[in-house]
Amino acid sequence: MTTILNGKELAKELRNEIKLEVAALLEQGHRPPHLAAILVGTDGASMTYVNSKERDCEFVGFKSTVLRLDESETEEGLIDKIEAINNDPDIDGLIVQLPLPSHINSDRITDTISPDIDVDGFHTISVGKLAKGMDTYVSATPFGIIKLLESYKVDTSGKHCVVIGRSNIVGRPMSILMSANSYPGNSTVTICHSRTSNLKEICKSADIIIAALGKPEFVSADMVKEGATVIDVGITRVPADNEKGYRLAGDVDFDAVKDKAEFITPVPGGVGPMTRYGLLYNTLKSYKIKAGIK
Ligand code: NAD
Description:
By secondary structure, the protein is an alpha/beta fold.
């Protein structure tokens, strides 16, 4: 029997919990949590993500501020704006939507955000703390996946977990979390990437596959062991004969793999909504730390 890991439903439940918590805080006379986002340029997917983050904030009762900057914004100009936000006591979380235009150094930008409000968890200090197993802001997608595995009580201890993709946003932090001495975690982790030579064999030996490579339907049924857990992070727009002209495709061939898997995430409706929840969770966490609320 295959269980579909329904991220959409779980995220809805968890978002409602945050909404209730915020309502209670406001009733006690506290100010609302406040998330700031910076978007540089007009990349279609980035604009969609920032809009949905704004809507999520509105839904749970957070204040949200979005700075929409021109594609030609300079690195120094962006740094000045980030520093102003770092010094604003009213703001609990700051994210700078990636990717940035090529004339801006993303590492320099993510390291300009104060680690205290680094709710995307991309600052070198946040990543270092994650690697050491210290409390920090875990970036939203890996956080959401961990929450999904935990909620569905997926057994991860001693399991072989194969992470496909080594990006700083998904694959790398995911591999750290799955190998951490915690639950979910305690897995034996193999991290694969574009230079991995025997990917199919490695995947076939996996109890858990986390696919984050951005190649539509890459993980086929013959790469998956009977009874495996399959987490599909991929979101790629592929041309489709519909109103939008595209559909969202995951990195896993869902229809072919689903009957082999014990647990599997759909796309859409799996990891995506959990990622959106992760950002709300981190913002509330930062707010509570600032306000000294347990
Ligand atoms: P990325 O392009 O930064 O990294 C892709 C990684 O995949 C690289 O490390 C690369 O080495 C590896 N890779 C590429 N081709 C490969 C191959 N043939 N075999 C093995 N490894 C290969 O991408 P990213 O930012 O990590 O995102 C990956 C996917 O996840 C994208 O589709 C992205 O849109 C999606 N994503 C989804 C969410 C979500 O909330 N669901 C969040 C972030 C990213």
